[in-house]
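Reviewers asked in the last cycle whether our approach scales beyond single polypeptides. To address this, we selected a multi-component target totalling 682 residues and predicted its structure end to end. The input consisted of the following lines:
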Amino acid sequence: MINDPSTRIPAADGTSKAGAGIRLTGDLTGENGAALLTVLSVLTVLAIGISILVARVRAGIKPWAREWETTQALYTAESGIAYQLYLERFSDSAEPAFGKAAAPDTGADPLTSSAFPAPADTFAFRMDSTQPTPETRVDRTRAFLDITSKGIYRNAEVTVTARFGKALDPDIFGPALTLDNSAPLEPFPNDRVFGPIRLKTPSPGLPSAAWREGFSVAAYTAEFTDKKYYASEAALQKKLGETGGITGNGTYTPDDPPDFQKSENLFFPLGSVELSNPDDRLWVIKGPGRIYCEGEIRVKGLIRLENIQLLSGKDVTFEDSVAGDGISVFARGSVYVHGRCNLGMEAVAGKDILLKDKSQTAPGSVLLSVGNKHAGKPGDSVNAIRVVNEAVARGFLIAAGTNGRVVVGTKQNVVEGVVMASAVWLSGEVRGPVLAHQLLCEGTNARNCLGDGKIDRGALPVNFVQPLQLGPQDRRVYVFKLMEWKRT
Amino acid sequence: MSPGACERWPGLRLRLRGRNRDRQSGFTILEIAVSLTVLSAGSAVLWYGLRSSAQLEKLNRLHHAAVMLARSDLESLRSVPKRDIHDTLYLASGVSGEMLLVSRRVMDSARIVNTSAEVVLDDKLTPKATRQPLEVRVKVWRLPAGTGAVPDASALQDPEGDGYTDPGADDDDGEGKAHALAVLIVKLPEYIWY
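The resulting structure, written as structure tokens, was:
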């Protein structure tokens, strides 16, 4: 256009001047003002395009910022767990450097305070860190250590729940059979015990590893089982003695479920409780929630319990396909599990624990039969954990006391875990170590014999974890083992 | 303006006659001037927006790469024994061929206490205190311009050391002190994973 002769502006002398370059004469009808409109249109289109581009870029900022904040919040929560584990090992009241356990003083600076508080059940701490201190809670009521830690960073909040046990002590649980026997063990076929054997009293024809000086099966289990029993018994007594309990019996169905949102603790000082699902649809009861009652507790039907504690002054019964995880049970009497139930639970029974009719317990379960220690009742002749009728038990099975007995009733019964008891009757298989004072093969205490049983130490899962309080309590040598890790 | 000028430049004459519009009406100098001004201003704004969004996009990707690097460094320490975890400084590729500098500092209890300005404690820490979980701080920096494509890592200046300024400081705080692109801190728990 600039070099087009027709666009040149004529010079004063009549010639055109190249380079002036702008046609001032409009020869297009009706285009007055079109230049501005055109420019504005172009600018509008460009602005829209760039706005879209900027919007996309800005949208990209949020994800990385959120990811950063969430990652740091997660690490903060995890740091809380790390610090808590450190405190579990080194900052207990047994440590003279820390003095007696005390309630946390939120006003004092724990780093500069002369009396650094040792951990109570749940306590606050300040980390020696540039990070904000996470909110950490500890639940010591179970056999394993549950730590919940909430990390907050800017706008992100992450809660991590972790469950820890301790690594299985190879000195104790290394052999397939540890027999604290006073009478010799009768010989048995070669295909019955897979793994080393350790006998206190040497037996003819049975090679044995050396007995650990001073080791006693009864003493090893007693502290743990007694502690668990008395803690649960005290909790039950305390709760049933409080005012505000529910009168009569408790009957709950899917249409009338227990309301743990309203109150985590439901207690029936005089009654019994039944949780029953007559329908074919699964009824899920989620905790945290506790039911205390003086009478029996019965859970029946297609029910799934999650993080529920049941404490009864008599028996607790699970029947007809009850399932669940994180279940904690205490019964002054017995705990019955039958009818294809599948439970991840910690059960403490004053008398027996019976697992039958294709019922199962999940890995990480702990079954404790402690013998009747209730002050108001006479002692029992026998307290037993019985695994019968094709039932499978996993985890720890401990029948404490001199009358404690574990019975693996038939060849179809399997225990995948550790069996500890004063006396063990084996007809089925134990995939893991057995620690006992005596092996029974018939209804007499006169003989010490394996019978039809089989013990395979090598079949124990490699990730098997030991409850924290089982055995000697030198926390400084704990090797914590992670069992569960949940992020919310 | 002389009358002759109007004869020589008919278009100019036409406009100077005011609102006398006919078939010869067209763009006036004023109209074009306004249009050019608006176009220039608009283009400048749009160019700035375009450039900013491009820079933002690049910074975005850099930040994302930095967070990923910091996280990856921390995650790699999980299976490493405590005694083998040390301070380190290394280069990693970022985006568009840009190099990032990863700085890891391992804070044991003594070091943490020493770096906490507000706390003054006896330097004789108990053995128990030294068993506290290690705190690892990973920072990722943009490599200073002019360091070269792949400089010798040993010659790198610690971004957390004295006198370090990031020449390409998009994240400059206005006081000449550079900020890291990403910072992640964790106390390493001591337990067995499976």
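Chain A touches chain B through 70 residues (CB under 8 Å). We regard this as preliminary and will revisit it once experimental data from Aim 1 are available.
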